[in-house]
Amino acid sequence: MRKFEKISKEQWTKDEISGIDYEKHQIPKRGSKNSAGYDFFSPIDIIIPAHNTAKIPTGIKVIMEADEVLMIYPRSSIGFKTNIRLSNTTGIIDSDYYNNPDNEGHMWIKFYNPMDIDYKINIGDKIAQGIFTKFLIVDDDKTDSERVGGLGSTGK
Length: 156
What we know:
8% helix, 5-stranded antiparallel beta sheet, 156 residues, 2 helices, 3-stranded antiparallel beta sheet, Deoxyuridine 5'-Triphosphate Nucleotidohydrolase, Chain A
């Protein structure tokens, strides 16, 4: 199964998402039938200051098969027209990020603004795109640890 879900209302409140109403926030969707990427929508108004970063909650979590990954990229139009980019260049969302013991799986997107002017993102703006893909492992892979937590948790 592969599916986007809103985070719980409790997580929405805990993460202090104070933009759009929870019920009105959109699940990622493709812009056309041949689009590879699912567009993510901003649930908040935010300004990314010139030469600085801003972290945007998506209000979304994702469930997928164990051998799949969701890769997050900036939308082509944002990068091409403004040079705004993801701070980590590509976001990698592993299947075990979803509802693990210490983290509901809420995805956040952090942008960097290299311009000399501030950049405004409005509620409902398409801010990033997610692309699902299968991945392979080596034949002698022996990893059997379980994820506990969110960003950076597998390095602990």
